[in-house]
Write a structure and sequence with these properties.
Chain lengths: ~120, ~120
């Protein structure tokens, strides 16, 4: 069975500082991994995804994440936080069942950006 | 054009009532989903339909019944609403294809905030 753990339900950074949001996963099959962002009162939007190939993936808005199989991690980073990055971030893993497309989401991390 | 749309955006109702939420996607995807987001923002899948066929049915009370009249629509009907049903419900769609895994992006609707009084 698949599962996702996001370490830290709330992360606060200063504008211009490094953003690091942690995600660890458990999967019995090679995982497909995703980061989604949810702005207040909106639906989720895909930031980036890892399926196969290059383990460092780049996404929208300057975010990137690195798949580390040995650490079962997929941490999200951004070199310099912007006020507009304040939102809820969700890490997700694709379940291994056939013909479902099911995603398992982590608990979410609220990113606060201070001026 | 809106990719995944939901109506209504807000729904306030009394306990015991029956209500429906509608979802439509114009992306040509073969799979649609309903998620429930609770007050702690935890997202959990409820149902999924692939080409109008129910493929995911999580442990959801029988009071919840999804209906997919065609590939582009997945509606959610809730009978005998309870206080605990208050949440934000998200519809999503994706193209799963033959691989059966969500290798592609899931596109989410704006959500329907349901409040049961």
């Amino acid at each position: 069975a698949q599962s996702v753990t996001q370490l830290g339900s709330h992360v606060s950074v200063s504008e211009g500082a490094l953003v690091l949001l942690r995600c660890n996963y458990s999967s019995s099959v090679p995982p497909y991994l995703f980061w989604y962002v949810q702005y207040p009162n909106q639906g989720l939007q895909l930031l980036l995804k890892y399926t196969t190939g290059a383990t460092l993936v780049k996404g929208i808005n300057g975010f990137e994440a690195e798949f580390k199989k040995s650490e079962t991690s997929f941490h999200l980073t951004k070199p310099s936080a912007h006020m507009s990055d304040a939102a809820e971030y969700f890490c997700a893993v694709s379940a291994g069942s056939s013909n479902t497309g099911k995603l398992i989401f982590g608990q979410g991390t609220t990113l606060q950006v201070k001026p | 054009d809106t990719a995944v749309s939901q109506t209504p955006k807000y729904l306030v109702t009394q306990m015991g009532n029956d209500k429906s939420i509608k979802c439509e996607q114009n992306l040509g995807h073969d799979t649609m989903y309903w998620y429930k987001q609770d007050s702690k923002k935890f997202l959990k899948i409820m149902f999924s339909y692939n080409n109008k066929e129910l493929i995911i049915n999580e442990t959801v009370p029988n009071r919840f019944s999804p209906k997919s009249p065609d590939k582009a629509h997945l509606n959610l009907h809730i009978n005998s609403l309870e206080l605990g049903d208050s949440a934000v419900y998200f519809c999503a769609s994706s193209q799963v294809g033959r691989s059966g895994r969500a290798s592609g992006e899931q596109f989410f609707g704006p959500g329907t905030r349901l409040t049961v009084l």
